[in-house]
Every structure is written in structure tokens, then in C-alpha cells.
Write a structure and sequence with these properties.
The protein is α+β, with helices and mostly antiparallel strands. The protein folds into two domains: 2-78, SP0830-like domains (Alpha-Beta Plaits, 2-Layer Sandwich); 84-176, Alpha-Beta Plaits (2-Layer Sandwich), CATH 3.30.70. It contains six helices and eight strands. It has helices at 20-28, 53-68, 79-87, 112-120, 153-158, 167-176; strands at residues 2-8, 33-37, 43-48, 74-78, 100-105, 126-131, 134-139, 163-166. It has a four-stranded antiparallel beta sheet with strand order 2-3-1-4. Strands 6-7-5-8 form a four-stranded antiparallel beta sheet. A hairpin with a 5-residue loop joins strand 2 and strand 3. The protein is globular.
């Protein structure tokens, strides 16, 4: 069995809430085992026989759409993949005390035109770096003060569904669920 981590978009935000026990039940209904949640923002850990991340994402999205009545995007990583995301050091200056590093999860690498648009969006307070299926976002101030944090502008810039986690959350997940030997 392989352990996976699903990072979900649209869980417990915008007035839509779901209890973590109910979310776990939705995952168990898919035949996934050892299902756990990590904080209330849509981080679900589970085990299943090795499968493609994209197949799991589609199954999870279909199940949640059916059970919850709205679209929830899923971004699935294996333990080693999440550990690599947490350990990756993007080429950013040190993060100032009032800033933070965020990681946006996407389902496939970005196209060349989107990478160019992302590079053009760099400012003194917002810097971006795409690596595999993640976009690292260095923010010098509060996340909510960035013009790209409002009304899904960041997701519109990327042109694909995304979910964003603070790097400290990703590191905590990777530490709590280390790669099995």
C-alpha cells in the first residue's frame, strides 16, 4: 500500500463547511484506507494500492462533487513527492518577518506562456517560481494584501485550478507523514 496526501481546494472556505469526520467517510467510500485529516483546510492522508495521482484526483473529485454538491479540486501527492515539495528551496531572497512562503499545488506543469505571465507578475512584494506541479509564492507582506490573493486572481493567472498552502503547513504534513522505508 502507498500513502498519499490529497490537498483539496474549496474545503471550509467561503461559507462551505464540512466536518472532518464526514470528509474522511467520503474518502473511505472510495475504498481508501487509513484515512486521516490534517487541520480543517482539506488535507487528507490515505493509503491505497499504487495508482496514478491523476486517477486518484479524478476519483476524489467525482466523489466529493456527488456527495457535497459542488466542485472540489484535488491535488494528490505521494509521501516522497510531498517531502520533495517541502524540502525544495526556490531561488528567493530570505522571507521578511512579516512575509511568508506559500506553495500552490496544480495538477500538471504550467505551459510556457503561463510561465511567462507568472514571471511578469513578479513584484517587489510577490515573487513566483514554478517547479514541477507546484508554484512557490514568496510574499513580503500579508497574503491578503497581495492583489493576486483577491477573487481568485492567482488562479486566473495560472489558468488552472489550484490550492495554496503556507509552506509551514506543507512542512508539518511532510514531517507528520514521513516517507516510509
Amino acid at each position: 500500500m502507498t500513502r498519499y496526501i490529497a490537498l483539496l481546494r474549496a474545503i471550509n472556505v467561503g461559507g462551505r463547511t464540512i466536518k472532518m469526520e464526514v470528509l474522511r467517510q467520503h474518502f473511505e467510500a472510495l475504498g481508501l484506507t487509513k484515512v486521516e485529516t490534517f487541520i480543517n483546510s482539506g488535507n487528507v492522508i490515505f493509503e491505497t494500492r499504487a495508482a496514478k495521482n491523476s486517477s486518484l484526483e479524478k476519483k476524489i473529485e467525482a466523489q466529493l462533487r456527488q456527495m457535497m454538491g459542488y466542485d472540489v479540486s484535488a491535488f494528490v501527492r505521494t509521501e516522497p513527492e510531498l517531502a520533495a515539495v517541502a524540502a525544495y528551496q526556490p531561488p528567493f531572497p530570505p522571507t521578511p518577518p512579516e512575509g511568508a512562503l506559500y506553495i500552490a499545488f496544480i495538477q500538471a506543469p504550467l505551459s510556457a506562456p503561463v510561465l511567462q505571465a507568472l514571471a511578469a507578475a513578479d513584484t517587489a512584494t510577490d515573487k513566483f517560481h514554478a517547479h514541477h506541479c507546484e508554484v512557490y509564492w514568496w510574499r513580503a507582506g500579508r497574503y491578503s494584501d497581495s492583489p493576486l490573493s483577491a477573487s481568485g486572481r492567482f488562479e486566473k493567472l495560472l489558468g488552472v485550478p489550484t490550492t495554496v498552502r503556507k509552506s509551514t503547513t506543507v512542512r508539518s504534513l511532510a514531517e507528520k507523514y514521513p516517507v516510509k522505508e
